């Protein structure tokens, strides 16, 4: 009888010990889980931390490095040693702009109908109107019509009263294109009275056949004078080769700025060159309107939400976006700090001079402070010219935009933070005139890297930036012919020096075989990296006709993000919204 209580007591002690062990194990697991959660937050928490970090980073003064005291993310003041020239595009010397008409392209006097006139009313800001003027010349050629000098948009968001002669050299425009299209300054009088043309609108991306089917019959029925309204992107992207080359002759040769703008622009460029042999021009596009349209969150809390929300209410058709989704898809402009970090990672040191073309920056000097700390030599037209010098241009947004256009066009490196019309036109122009470096952030890939940058060294960060930016640096053949907008990728007008390129490729193969033979005789295992040749020996020439894979995925896929995907985002039923965003 005494054994039974003892056995019960023994079972009780064993059960109690088991409960204690289970409790200890459970507590340990909970502590471990909490520790891991702290180290590796969820993606949403990580993104929100990153966005809050933007707000605090705007208030941080960055000197020789932008980093927390205890962080390994330390930015060197110099650009570091790179295997490339940061001020030029590799292989650019083998390509050149070519836009001369072929022998079969008839002269204007032979094909122009004597009483057929085409008038054009452009739309949008300076650069959107520039695309319209370029396409208007081609449209007149398709219709065998005389072109009336296009009317500029004076009523849209920009409210600029300038006419064609205030912005462009009209006499040069007419004379340069005289062999291609007959152009007159105004419609002739009819019966002693002003001739009022019939107005109509053609659809976007209207092809050659579209013009012949839609506009020509109206021209013939409506007394041979038609005005096409809201003329922006009203011509197909793909046309006959001679018509594409005509586009290039208009855009890159016939459209020259009026002398007052040209002289002021040259003076601004000269003042940048006096400060430094090289300079970067940055089209920042971090204005309140742009951020409101993007629907992105930049960590400014309720204040930012209310301020940008008030702007969004001006546009009834603007859809509300998911900020995280917009950022993941690369549709959010980089912050000024992120642009600065990208450029430093690409090898541009703190001594590099930067010209910023921008309107009012959201957050003002606080937002710009990290960028200025990364690049202290920071300028704009307002800082290198006096108010008196800028006086004739200040009241005219298109003339001010033209000054920025000139300084950006003449820069050694152009950086764009969006894919609007100025960015597109300058990208195409810089390809045509020598493939000068033109950098567009690969925002879709970079955003994750910016999120995690404080968890890596600067060397790791900069290496990843350089990898992700391949295909976004303005190198020859980055974008396949025919992809994207023609104004951005004028492939028909870019010719290759095949003979010189062939010789370089042959030399490259010879050197490669010779090095392999040498290494075989020495019976030494050589890594792929050691087999790379110095850039001074021979330019590397990747075959971009094949689909190449890198860490950022298929080249064709991520290049399509450069040119084609963004345009639809700025086509809107709100004329003011579209005009404001397009440039």
UniProtKB/TrEMBL annotation:
Acidic residues bias locations: 529-551
Coiled-coil segments: none
Alphabetical keyword list: Carbohydrate metabolism, Fucose metabolism, Glycosyltransferase, Membrane, Transferase, Transmembrane, Transmembrane helix
Entry keyword annotation includes Glycosyltransferase: yes
Start-end of Basic and acidic residues biased regions: 515-525
Example GO molecular function: glycosyltransferase activity
Pfam families, per the entry: O-FucT
Gene Ontology process terms (BP): fucose metabolic process
Region (Disordered) residue spans: 502-583
InterPro entries named among the record's database cross-references: FucosylTrfase_pln, GDP-Fuc_O-FucTrfase
TM region(s), chain numbering: 21-40
Superkingdom as given in the UniProt entry: Eukaryota
UniProt xrefs under PANTHER family: O-FUCOSYLTRANSFERASE 16 (PTHR31818:SF1)
Recorded family membership: Belongs to the glycosyltransferase GT106 family.
Protein name: O-fucosyltransferase family protein
Species this chain originates from: Gossypium stocksii
Lineage: Eukaryota, Viridiplantae, Streptophyta, Embryophyta, Tracheophyta
